[in-house]
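Predict structure. Chain length: 211.
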Amino acid sequence: MMKKREVPHVCLLLLAVLQISTLASAQNTLTTISPQSTATNLTPALRYQTRPVNVNVSVGEPAVFNCGVPEGSPNLTFTFYGNLGNYTLTCPHGHVEDSAKALYGSCEMKNGESSAEWTLKGTSLSDNGTKVICQQSKNLEAAAAVLHVYVLDNGVSHATLIGCLIGGFFGILLVFVLLYIVLQSSGTLQRALCLQGDDTEDDLDTIVTKD
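Prediction complete.
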């Protein structure tokens, strides 16, 4: 009878040991997974939602560059390198170094995005090759873009060339007309001088004859 009663106690001890080992392994698993999940939650904020892109404009047109990062990691600097100088825009605080009158920088927090914008109000050929670089805080990657400025040829240059040719033709014609008039006037003057010369010779002949 004593042996039959001892068997259930042994089974209970084995079950208890199994439960304790199971709980310990579960705690170790949670401890191992927790840092990974935390890192995964932080990583998506370090990225660019709006990357600056290359801009192509004709002379005189404005040029706009944009950069945006997630609101979870909103700090960024947007630097302008161009003919007007080098300027840095710090967002989301909206701080911008003193910039030229033709250059305007702004920051905005909208739709879960911290965005920065550079606007060059009027472009010239000297602005060709202007570069902007966006750098998110704690992000090793930077985003950049370049400005390309070109001369718009829509027939205006050809019309200007034709106008210059026509104007040049009439200008040359006018010069020849004036030259002809001057020559005519000088011919009349020459004839008058010749007549005066003949009279002088006649007077000399008369004087010589009298002598």
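Summary: The beta strands are 55-58, 63-70, 76-82, 85-91, 95-96, 103-110, 113-120, 131-136, 142-150.
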